[in-house]
Amino acid sequence: MFKFHDYFILTILLVSIFGTAGCYSTPISNRKQLLLIPEQQEITLGMQSYEDILAEEKLSSNPHYVEMVQRVGQRIAAEAGHDEYAWEFRVIESPEMNAFALPGGKVAIYEGILPICENEAGLAVVMSHEIAHAIARHGGERMTQQGVATAAGKVVDFYSKDKEQKERERIRAVFGAASQYGYILPYSRKHESEADQIGLILMSRAGYDPNEAPRFWKRFSQQGGQKPPEFMSTHPSDERRAADLEAMLPEALAEYSTATEQYALGKPIFNASDLAGSKPKAPANTIVPASSLSGPPTDDPFFARP
Asked: Going by C-beta distance under 8 Å and a sequence separation of 6 or more, which residues neighbour residue 184?
């Protein structure tokens, strides 16, 4: 007769099998995906979240920021291959160093990250990363993964129902930690690394120098702040991202060399005499997570934010 740990192992094996064998593939990285959520449902939910966010946030009134974000975003979206998406690029007036994308092509950049971008190519690093999340359907995949983890948890509860209360609580705690640190968080980090990979190729094809990608993450890592250990984070460390992107540069540079237009670093976001002292800055007590990119503070599964 099977014991509890046998069912536990069986459940984890099933989760692993379903988590690696899907009928969809991501663009550029060609990773197999399990997606149980129809794309149109993702887009509908994403649009609802987008409207809720815009109702709460103040949009930037700086025409220079808005024009640059729209220009860079449109160039990258043209290389993304999803003409059916209603691409939209907004700038949010906030010192937060952040950005996010939603299913269907809704992308927002927070003013606070612009000083770290420094130039169009740096902005392209951020925007191509967010666009990559959208076209790789990471939001739908996260929802699927959470559904799988929930189903597995119900199996654990069922086969531990005859145990004493303390033992059931211990089993739930062990399973919860195992699913969080062994399944959910590693997949979140995989999504971030994959968005970096896809985004690097997209920005290169759009004509922006991919060498700026690792430089951006090095600048971001210098912002300081309390960072959790990588295994406890939804994101790889900034230092790892910079190193991984440097390793991807040969392929990206090959794509850049064949781009229809080459903008190199593009225009600077701030001119030398630009509005002295008026650049958006994060408050002195801001704590920057190991990357804050990919979403405003929320428990919505579309966002990969800690």
From this structure: 145, 146, 149
CB contact set of 204 (below 8 Å; sequence gap of 6+): 210, 252, 253, 255, 256, 259
Structure tokens at 28: 């550029």
Q: Is 243 exposed, middle or buried (0-12, 13-18, 19+ CB in 10 A)?
A: middle
Residues classed as catalytic: 130
Q: Are 264 and 213 in contact (CB under 8 A)?
A: no
**For 19-56, how does the pLDDT look when each residue is reduced to its tens digit (9 = 90+)?**
444 578 999 999 998 888 889 999 999 899 999 999 99
Residue 154 to residues 159, 160, 175, 216: CA-CA distances in angstroms? 9, 10, 11, 43
Report the predicted TM-score, pTM, of the whole model to 2 decimal places. Answer: 0.75
